[in-house]
Amino acid sequence: GSGAGSVRRTSQKIREIRSALSLCMCQCIFQASLETRKNLIGASEALVVDANEQERLRSLRSYKILDTDPEQAFDDLTLIASQICGAPMALITLVDEDRQWFKSRIGTDIRESPRSISFCAHAIQQKGIFTVPDALNDPRFRDNPVVKGNPHIRFYAGAPIESSNGQALGTLCVIDYVPRTLTEDQNHALQALERQ
Fold first, then answer.
1. What's phi and psi for 128, nearest 5 deg?
2. Is pLDDT of 9 > 80?
3. How far is CA 186 from CA 15, 136, 150, in A?
4. In which region does residue 68 sit, left (phi positive, over 0), alpha (psi from -120 to 50) or beta (all else)?
5. Count of beta carbons in the 10 Å neighbourhood of residue 54
6. Would you state the torsion angle of the CA atoms of residues 142, 145, 151, 152, taken in this order, to the nearest 10 degrees?
7. Which phi and psi angles does 161 have, rounded to 5°?
8. Cα dihedral sign, 42-46-52-56
9. What is the reported pLDDT for 126?
10. Is the pTM of this model over 0.85?
11. Which residues of 59-87 are buried (b: 16+ CB within 10 A; e: fewer)?
12. 58-82-126-146 Cα dihedral, nearest 10 degrees
């Protein structure tokens, strides 16, 4: 009946987002090149939202994953990311209209935070890895309350999680409290993971 069809469609969408997370983990999370971004915008400037934001939000909400319970498949990915990158915090974030919500989290008990102070809101607006080697030296983030205050974020690296139609829904990211990049060994380990 229609109820069974709805369940099948929802299950398919959950499989799609899990597949996107796995692909993100295996193919692009934390590539060897971690360069400081150039042409930084001023910290006082508001983040410019892409013109397709409404389409992106519709795509995100179609998965019906916001505010759902934790799932082992997602928690496994954040655990792997944290261990490979030696990072105390790893998250799977979904960027909603006014917040970022954490589907999976390691190193924090917070379930969501305002989009206005989100590193991930920047990450979803570009392809590839978005890295911030030292937030205190980045005009976009040095006055951010999560940089100036708890949890005192210094390093961030996040890979966009894309839907089947190419919309960036959120990120798989790692965070540290000291400035850093990734080591050669960590990059080799990620390449080994990709071959699995």
1. 80, -170
2. no
3. 28, 24, 27
4. beta
5. 11
6. 20
7. -100, 120
8. positive
9. 85
10. no
11. bbeebebeeeeeeeebbebbebbbebbeb
12. 90
Query: For residue 136, how far is the Cα from the chain centroid?
Result: 20
Per-residue pLDDT tens digits for 52-108 = 899 999 999 999 999 999 999 889 988 998 998 999 999 999 999 999 999 999 999
Length of the chain as a residue count: 196
**Backbone phi and psi for residue 84, each to the nearest 5 degrees, phi listed first:** -65, -40
- For the stretch 105-141, pLDDT in tens is 999 999 999 999 999 999 999 887 788 999 999 999 9
Crossing angle, helix 184-194 and helix 72-85, to 10 degrees?
150
Strands of 112-114's sheet, edge to edge?
A: 112-114, 99-106, 89-95, 168-176, 155-162, 130-132
Enter the tokens of residue 146: 């999560």
